[in-house]
Amino acid sequence: MRRVLRTLAAATASACLLLPLGAAQSSATVQSSATAATPSSAATLADPIGMTSGFYTDPHSNPAAWAAANPGDGRAAAIRDNIASRPMARWFGAWSGDIGAAVGSYVGAADAADKLPVLIAYNIPGRDACGGHSGGGAGTPAAYHSWISAFASAIGTRPALVVIEPDSLGDFSCLTQAQIKERNAMLRGALAQFRDRAPNTWTYLDAGNPAWIGASTMAQHLDGAGVREAHGFSLNISNYFGTGENTAYGNAVNGALAASYGYTRPYVVDTSRNGNGSNGEWCNPGGRRIGATSQLGGGGGAEMLLWLKTPGESDGDCGVGGGSAAGQFLPEVAYKMIFGY
């Protein structure tokens, strides 16, 4: 059963349960990063970390399902032990069907295990406008409002982390000013839905990666989209930049937020595929490697390191994933990513 909500101060001691061996940080650092930048709203009372005993590992993830269906494959054991057994996010979009039922089932399974689920909402109209490989999303802002409202309602009072719409603030170069205004309104509306319907959820707006948009410009985008009302922002989703590069960028974004708007926010880094860093390519580059597993902290200022993209899932019809669709699980790519070749 889910643990009773505790204050951040009381939960600090239990937060170390989320840390893998050798990755512990001082409780003072955890408490500082979790409290210093949180919004001055009801969301300040939320403590999904303190309500749970670690990150949730999805037994039905794509790599877990593939390994279970292919026990005789020589790659199955490595994929099961090094990827499928790790906590990672689940992505939700139009493919999820009834979003309320899909989210409710997933969060309910995590809650029953006393674990913290990480979810990604990926259904905003005009999604991936610049990249194109993951285009789609809800048909209208009204449809998106209904979808994200059902998403938040399905979580309810259960603890969760939710990243809202990866790439949505990095795609501005492909949008008109009217479209940017409309997108910002949808993102602010999404944050309001989680605030009102999912009080024990920490929400994160996505801030791209270090090579995409300058820190001061991204701070402007985040503020316009309402990050003041979010718990924080996310970095490096589905990309490959090293953790140090991301923390330097995240700290710069926070510096710009503080200088221009008078506040900062915690940030998380996607380390699922950054073990070898970036070679400058973003779409299924070869020679990449899985990175540090999900944990609190991460050195350099990150609140958490998380596996947000599933290793082995394609970025689209490109690179070593030629002929595949975005999100398709590719066992050979996953296998090579374990060993970095």
How would you explain this protein's 3D organization?
It is built from ten helices and eight strands. The protein has helices spanning 8-15, 27-35, 62-69, 76-84, 99-112, 141-155, 177-197, 215-224, 243-261, 331-339, and strands spanning 90-92, 118-121, 160-164, 201-206, 232-235, 267-270, 295-296, 304-306. Helix 8 (215-224) links the parallel strand 4 (201-206) and strand 5. Helix 1 (8-15) crosses helix 2 (27-35) and helix 8 (215-224) crosses helix 9 (243-261). It is globular. Pfam families: Glyco_hydro_6. Belongs to the glycosyl hydrolase family 6. Residues 1-28 form the signal peptide.
Task: List descriptors.
Beta_cellobiohydrolase_sf; polysaccharide degradation; globular; signal; 341 residues; EC 3.2.1.-; cellulose degradation; single chain; alpha/beta; 10 helices; eight-stranded mixed β-sheet; disordered N terminus
